[in-house]
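Quick log. Single chain, no ligands specified.
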Amino acid sequence: MPHEPQPQPADELDAEAVRTWSSLALAALGRAREDIDAINVYPVADADTGTNLYLTAESADRALAEAFDSAARAAAAPTSLPEAVRAWAHGALVGARGNSGTILAQLLRGVADVLGAEPEGRRTGPGGLLAHALTRAAEEAYAAVAHPVEGTMLTVAGAAARAGETASAAAGTAADVARAAYDGARAALAETPGQLAALGRAGVVDAGGCGLVAVLGALWQALSGQEPAADPVAGRTAPPAARPDDPCEQHEDGPAYEVIYLLEASEAAVAELRARLDGLGDSLVVVGGDGLWNVHVHVDDPGAAVEAGVVAGRPYRIRITHFGDERRRGRGERAQRAVVAVVPGEGLAGLCAEAGATTVLVRPGELPATAELLDAVRRAHAREVVLLPGGTELRAAAATAAEQARAEGVRVAVIPTRSAVQGLAALAVHDPDGSFDEDVVAMTAAAGATRYGELAVAERQSFTSAGICQAGDVLGLIDGDVAVIGAGLTETAEAVLDRMLGSGGELVTLVLGPEVPDAVAERLQAHVQSGHLAVDTVTYRGGRYSAPLLIGVE
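-> predicted structure:
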């Protein structure tokens, strides 16, 4: 059951107060979500700041609720303040979305660093602990952003912290500090159009800062029981339409992709990663600590950004979004059509992103939930979306996500791709300028005309459609069924290719896993040419998390 917020006494800040703060913040961001999206013009006018903040807060609130539920099931002691804030911050870190969500995650981490400390390490005084937490939050958020810009969410966080410290110095209670921080944030937000040219031209306040005001208003409500103002700062509800003669609107240069991933790495490796990513693009934010980080950057080469993460440690939950020529979204326009592709490999994710698709990366043994697929459809920000699930096991989740997206006014078609190579075939014929129905038919036909194969290594002895296999055997699957059992990758792949090409074909697509040498692709290409002179072969690198070898025959 959802947590029912219960405002706490003004001088008390405990785990229940944090839980109430989280619930109220999520509700506030949910109410303000569309309005915040509408005023999103910086750093990219992609109309998703409100959505990103809401999804980040939702992940944080879910993790906090799980911490309380776990303690209740174990009949253990009630969740403590340190346990609550650490769970809350961790949930925000792993679920952070976009530039604004990533900064919010770091703000919550700063709060957790103070509220999660042992009692002897805390500042004394009625509101001193909260004031210190807000100050640490602002400091850590500034430090996480490679090139901080005033007139943004950071400015609002800094003003809130300063106002909270002033209230604390006057012996204010926690509620007094929260009210001062909220008022300070509102005042700072009102000044943002004069600090940042992009906001001034559009006549709007900073979208991320607006979301932070909502979060701080929820904090004050949690501690005082009083509701904050419904509209903290008056202003435009949507940016103005672009004027053809406005040079500021005509030159919207910037990287074409947003890359976000979680990263397991040391602090030293992350320091080197920051420097490397800073040279690749902009809007760089790296948040986290204790071995787990959330990396956000805007780049023109998403593959290089992911590769930098591989060098630093172990990246996962990689999301690559193309927005280069979709910046008009922030002026209230949606792209007409977009493609969302689920792919099993970092290299494939980069390849599909370069083709203009919004991607969802899956790792072995993990499947994206309906919510993640729906989020990808929303991130595509288009009136029409073609969804490529890439596997039969995802069809139900894809169908549910499509149904929910249709309820939000998006026209969605799910193409029943059963392999990544079928998705590549569909993308190859995608025509965003043609009619939706004709595009879906062409993509479906291309996917359906592509037979797919995969090579995998057996983990244990088992019965298959091709006989009994032993642990370590190479399995050659065709259209999902084991067709060949072999001892070596190359020899088994050749046998699979012979069977697949036995019924004809014009193009062979090979997707190599991360451990497969280029020599294997060269040998397979030669094998195809020796027996099928009219068949062309193309080779791609699947990257980390991809199967040893994927094969497509069209």
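The two ends are 50 Å apart (CA to CA).
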